[in-house]
Amino acid sequence: MTGPTPLTLASIRQAPKAVLHDHLDGGLRPATVLELARDCGYDQLPAADADTLGRWFRDAANSGSLERYLETFDHTVAVMQTPEGLRRVARECAIDLADDGVVYAEVRFAPEQHLEAGLSLDEVVEHTLEGFREGERLAAEAGHPIRVTCLLTAMRHAARGREIAELTVRFRDRGVGGFDIAGAEAGYPPTRHLDAFEYLRSQHAHFTIHAGEAFGLPSIHEALAFCGCDRLGHGVRITDDITDSADGPKLGLVANYVRDMRIPLELCPSSNVQTGAVPSLEKHPFDVLARLRFRVTVNTDNRLMSDTTMSREMHKLVATFDYGWSDLERFTINAMKSAFIPFPDRLRIIDEVIKPGYAVLLG
Questions:
Q1: Per annotation, catalytic residue among 92, 126, 136, 213
Q2: Which positions are annotated as binding Zn(2+) (predicted)?
Q3: DSSP conformation letters of 119-177
Q4: What is the pLDDT of residues 227-269, one digit of tens each?
Q5: What is the reported pTM?
Q6: Which fold has domain 9-362?
Q7: Residue 183 marked in a binding site
Q8: Stretch 106-114: mean pLDDT, rounded?
Q9: Where are the domains of the chain?
Q10: Does the annotation flag 301 for ligand binding?
């Protein structure tokens, strides 16, 4: 090597990547959705072949509305109600991420949405974790090792936050790394689940909160000031607290706090455009936040709905903001620094996998 490897989608696939914000029920293979639907007798799918079904998910998600975007999950969740379905989806998730060069992944899902076939919350988590471990084993055998950590999500509109928080703590030594709340933000502030967050803090457990995606700065403020989250899921609306001045960007109290405390932002470029959180990729605040040295991370959110991968997300950012390998390395290390695994494990992946991988690409 006499210089950096050219930045292409194919070469980015070779780079070691870390994803913190990936939804299990948003990353199914269309063919798997069809097969699981046949197996469980679900007959409400909008298409009968994999290609058409994949297009339907993408088109339905491109509405510009978070609420409409979330409706697509009715179909994926419906086929994830059995032990076999949960294990298969989790197994394929790990394999697909590893095939894309992801070496560390945090994948989240809401156990409360997978009880229709009679499984208990504990059984749902057990089968999902078993699928992740199977996927890790198969990925390693194929030469693409990956570590998958599971995050358990409570739905904002429901009242099971404390129950899912306790489930998180119960499984935290068995592959569950933390807790999350998700769903429509408007009308469902994070403080509705304050008892869950108080319990998690009492147990020294990690948690992130979907905030600042469809709703603005008040959602971020509550997530930080009252709930005490470790990370912000999306958080793009932090720019509501950044104004232009003659001396450059001026940060308000919340934005300053997020930057000063190195609160990670789980930014999902393609998804943020689809849900209307930002008007276009060119106007996505990712670059502004990166230049202001916020701890920005690149994420997929929902690979099926956005027809994306980590490599595609990075490639889009390169094409839009003219990033180089050193930028992608920084975003990846940002993610690993922010992972919900022990500090020595984070350092090992950074020092033994990520830095050597980018050193080769940088030439």
A1: 213
A2: 21, 23, 210, 301
A3: --HHHHHHHHHHHHHHHHHHHHHTT---EEEEEEEEETTSS-HHHHHHHHHHTTTTTEE
A4: 999 999 999 999 999 999 998 999 999 999 999 999 999 999 9
A5: 0.96
A6: TIM Barrel (3.20.20)
A7: yes
A8: 98
A9: 9-362
A10: yes
